[in-house]
TrEMBL record, chains A, B:
<keyword id="KW-0274">FAD</keyword>
<dbReference type="InterPro" id="IPR016169">
    <property type="entry name" value="FAD-bd_PCMH_sub2"/>
</dbReference>
<dbReference type="InterPro" id="IPR016167">
    <property type="entry name" value="FAD-bd_PCMH_sub1"/>
</dbReference>
<dbReference type="Pfam" id="PF02913">
    <property type="entry name" value="FAD-oxidase_C"/>
</dbReference>
<dbReference type="Pfam" id="PF01565">
    <property type="entry name" value="FAD_binding_4"/>
</dbReference>
<dbReference type="InterPro" id="IPR004113">
    <property type="entry name" value="FAD-bd_oxidored_4_C"/>
</dbReference>
<dbReference type="InterPro" id="IPR036318">
    <property type="entry name" value="FAD-bd_PCMH-like_sf"/>
</dbReference>
<dbReference type="InterPro" id="IPR016171">
    <property type="entry name" value="Vanillyl_alc_oxidase_C-sub2"/>
</dbReference>
<keyword id="KW-0560">Oxidoreductase</keyword>
<feature type="domain" description="FAD-binding PCMH-type">
    <location>
        <begin position="36"/>
        <end position="216"/>
    </location>
</feature>
<dbReference type="InterPro" id="IPR051264">
    <property type="entry name" value="FAD-oxidored/transferase_4"/>
</dbReference>
<dbReference type="InterPro" id="IPR006094">
    <property type="entry name" value="Oxid_FAD_bind_N"/>
</dbReference>
<protein>
    <submittedName>
        <fullName>FAD-binding oxidoreductase</fullName>
    </submittedName>
</protein>
<dbReference type="InterPro" id="IPR016164">
    <property type="entry name" value="FAD-linked_Oxase-like_C"/>
</dbReference>
<keyword id="KW-0285">Flavoprotein</keyword>
<comment type="similarity">
    <text>Belongs to the FAD-binding oxidoreductase/transferase type 4 family.</text>
</comment>
<dbReference type="InterPro" id="IPR016166">
    <property type="entry name" value="FAD-bd_PCMH"/>
</dbReference>
Amino acid sequence: MQANELSSLLETELSGLAWSMQPGDLEQFGQDWTRFHQPDASVVFFPNDIAEVQQIIRLANRTGQVVIPSGGRTGYSAGAVATGGEWVISMVRFNAISDFNPIDQTVKVGAGVITEQLQQFAADQGLFYPVDFASSGSSHIAGNIATNAGGIRVLRYGLTRDYVLGLTVVTGSGEILHLNQGLVKNASGLDFRHLFIGSEGILGVVIEAEIKLLAQPPNQSVMLLALTSLEAIMSVFALARKSLVLSSFEFFSDRSLKRVMAHRGFDNPFDELHPFYVLLEFDENEAAAMDVFESGMESGWVNDGIIAQSLDQATQLWQYREGISESIAHYTPYKNDISVKISLVPAFMEQLEDILAAEYPDFETIWFGHIGDGNLHLNILKPADMDTAEFKAQCEQVNVHVYGLIQQFSGSISAEHGVGLIKKPFLPYSKSAEEIRLMQAVKQVFDPNGVLNRGKVVDS
Amino acid sequence: MQANELSSLLETELSGLAWSMQPGDLEQFGQDWTRFHQPDASVVFFPNDIAEVQQIIRLANRTGQVVIPSGGRTGYSAGAVATGGEWVISMVRFNAISDFNPIDQTVKVGAGVITEQLQQFAADQGLFYPVDFASSGSSHIAGNIATNAGGIRVLRYGLTRDYVLGLTVVTGSGEILHLNQGLVKNASGLDFRHLFIGSEGILGVVIEAEIKLLAQPPNQSVMLLALTSLEAIMSVFALARKSLVLSSFEFFSDRSLKRVMAHRGFDNPFDELHPFYVLLEFDENEAAAMDVFESGMESGWVNDGIIAQSLDQATQLWQYREGISESIAHYTPYKNDISVKISLVPAFMEQLEDILAAEYPDFETIWFGHIGDGNLHLNILKPADMDTAEFKAQCEQVNVHVYGLIQQFSGSISAEHGVGLIKKPFLPYSKSAEEIRLMQAVKQVFDPNGVLNRGKVVDS
């Protein structure tokens, strides 16, 4: 549809709604944190309420358009990019936090509430929203729900899924569903709430959610350990888990540390570089932490360590881990976000290292991850002089080896980023042909004309 | 199909399989713990492996038969009863516990493993499987999964859903799906594992599950409090939650207590009868428990209390709560298993009491429930001289009032028992017409010929 034709359609059919066809808006709302596609949205809508979302979706159904729900656009799988003239629905105006109930310890959040806002709201009530990750300052709650976001505390607190007690959505056919409505126990038929969580906008648009909050945890401590080898990571994890109540157990490589030091101008936290590091967050217990450190040293797994002595120092140590993504962002990294069972991590990493050495000899690879969940982030940095399309193509060739290994280990090609466009060709490494066929059929049920995020996750 | 015709079909098509057409088996496997239907199964299969389950389902597809997956048959919603010549698949031979992994803290269990066996297995490894309820000694894991079973520790540990890391199922079209395969984090498309949990056998047959175990909790204490009024229940809950780490907060009425005392020959735990009781289980903390008791007395909410001084006494106190269902079983109770948000419990109970007084003046009603989850069990006892069908019909007339109130409160007509046959007519009180339509369409995707548990949960 031509721009002027579209304008006139919208003026006729959706006259009261806010939208933009400004090039700057189309570019901004047509992309996410991946940088492999040219943004190409036709229009960005800024609806104010659920009825407006319904109107847009119904018009898209009548006119055969594709609609893309858009949150904070911090995704790494191109699940919210517009690449072929789609209509984008920005949920930015659904930013209310309401209906806090201290007895239920629940609160209602609009789709466009930013993760950090919800964390802060919980803290203001003396409660805790534990889902956290590097993009918490920009990501929207509905985006977290669409990808079942995990992050740095999954080990202890689980995923976004575990905090969603209610979900209001508009389906691809424009119908409103109020799913579960905040109940703890509800065995009245198929639980579509859980089907929508992690569905990446292919079934419906999340409008608002009822979120469970937790009591605040005890004071947390942070310890950074420098490890001697890859094998030491799981040994230290087993050791630490016995004596500490862990909230996080994060791993990164020497190359990751060097990137953060260079990007943020930080000093090396230790006297020298070590091959691997793990960052532990746990319920304050200095004696037990010292024991872990000392036992690790005695066993030859640990080279050095720092236990934060203040909140400031804890925050500083976290930056060595949380700064990694940002420090490599301008290299247009190709991101593998993979998982296997926790117990299989050592064998998997060993074989993966062999593949990387054989297949990526010329690319810089940056490792980090949430070891306690079996989730590894493997970033391949684009050489400055290489064309983006060529780089993506080369990485996708290597994927055949990496994902072949994941398939052998019954792992996931996407642990927490989602499938979107980027991982779609590789979905068969984690899902059977029958499961993919069923996904297509279920999408068809909720979105019979395929207007919602068409082409993402599965072909429709 | 006539019995001799069926025999000859099975001898031809499923010659290696074990099945029975003995009247005793047909009766036993044609019913559950509800007693409102005449069992009428044609045959009971006892498959040994997944391929045999596939064969049965494929034959059912070819011949237009209906298949009912059967677990421990402890259900209260008639989700596993055979009422019209269906084929029953008993999963009793899928009773292996295997592949325990101490690092992942996971274990594989066959569909027919009994809940108590899994609890015991976990304890033998120094770990903990927290899902527990009165029928743990007979219920099968796959039945728990089919209804997303909750029970007495949901308050702290959540539902069956929260422990299922992997699920192998055979769909209604006879396809095998391996869902999630034990991963902690997996964002690779629609998560059908969560769709199957709570689906009551209408989408597929659960073959085995990978279950997450927990570290053992601290020692638990039990306290039984006699309360002065209905309103006191929530006040005591708020009070207790502040100072104790609660695992359970269970409520029952004086009538419930009298039934258990009569049925089991127990003495009254207190000097006299009180209108309501709550049973608390919590991390051992005698001082804090005493504080709760004393504050409750001072506030006029608590009349009397007992803190268990030994494990034996704790077990004894639990029997006053866990013995209720058994003590009323031979009255063919009509069971309402309803939930609202926790904060709405007091207002809901007050209005519900008015309805009961007006509509059930002649029936004995027995209250108990998991107050900390907003889940109430309301049992109506059948007068000895009333016909079962007449009794059911009368109860269903009152349901219009009870479920109308639930609808006003955005609650659930089935908190943990499922919908099955018994609650199906009342599903519209908890689910919209569109949601029910979508359930039917999703069933159609997984079970195109409607061979699985046809007529349960939704019409197909």
